Amino acid sequence: MLEVNLTAVVDLCQRAARVMLPPGGGKTINVASLLRFLGGLIVPAHAASKGGIAPLTKALANEWASRGICVNAIAPGDMATEMNAALIADAGRNAEISARIPTHRWGTADDMKGPKLFLASDASASVNGAILPVDGGYLGR
Q: Label partner for 68 (CA 20 to 30 A): which of 34, 60, 86, 121?
């Protein structure tokens, strides 16, 4: 899990930076997890491996900012994905999880589009090292 969720991200960020540096900059958007803020009850390995994305993002943002590279991350909350299919199919767990989200629904891939477009655009020129929750308002509770 660590290989995919953290080690691969480190490698890909370094490769992207090598491409972005000669022309003078660019933007990297990592995918962290809301578990970075919460921990997680039954998924400690996932929480730890995805949790490493946030400090990595901040460290790279600091290191590369003077060279024109912005590094940010989105942190999805409870998302309707294949990984969560069993929870969604379980009516009791689905209702419990949906009830704790202020929007009362699981997030979708479409919910990620706006935050990613913002972080990739010139509108976020002064946003660097940010971890943007995409969680239906969960962290705001």
A: 34
How many CA atoms lie less than 13 Å away from 71 in the CB half-sphere? Answer: 25
To 10 degrees, the CA torsion angle through 30, 106, 1, 133?
30
pLDDT in tens, 59-111: 999 999 999 999 999 999 999 999 899 999 999 999 999 999 999 999 999 99
Give the burial class of 53: count Cβ atoms within 10 A of its Cβ; 0-12 exposed, 13-18 middle, 19 or more buried.
Answer: buried
Q: Which domain holds residue 58?
A: 2-135
Flag whether 140 is in a domain: no
Reading the block at residue 70, the tokens are: 């912005």
Residue 71 lies in a domain: yes
**107 in any annotated domain:** yes
Q: Are 21 and 62 in contact (CB under 8 A)?
A: no
CATH number of domain containing 124: 3.40.50.720
